[in-house]
From TrEMBL:
InterPro entries listed in its UniProt record: Znf_put
UniProt-recorded name of the protein: Unannotated protein
Pfam families documented for this protein: zf-HC2 (PF13490)
Domain Putative zinc-finger as annotated: residue spans: 4-38
Species the sequence originates in: freshwater metagenome
Length: 80
């Protein structure tokens, strides 16, 4: 049975699916019984998704372009 310290240490690799099957099972069985580690797992998962979205979608956040226009005027997007 893994303890919290061990589980948290493996959490990032678990989320990245880098653990061997038996190692992942140890993490999963611990997560089922430990709300502290569940919270950490959810936090890391959301963090990872946020980073992935940011890295793969090279888009400005909603309204950001409009705010730029208001600050700098329409010329900011017309280099001519
Ligand atoms: Zn734990």
């Amino acid at each position: 049975m893994a303890d919290c310290q061990e589980t948290l240490k493996e959490l990032e690799r678990f989320i990245d699916a880098e653990l061997a099957h038996f190692e992942a099972e140890v993490v999963v069985s611990h997560l089922k019984t430990c709300t502290d580690c569940q919270g950490a797992f959810e936090f890391h998962t959301e963090l990872r998704q946020a980073i992935r979205v940011k890295a793969t979608r090279d888009e400005l956040p909603d309204g950001f372009a409009e705010r730029l226009m208001q600050c700098f005027g329409d010329n900011v997007y017309s280099p001519d």
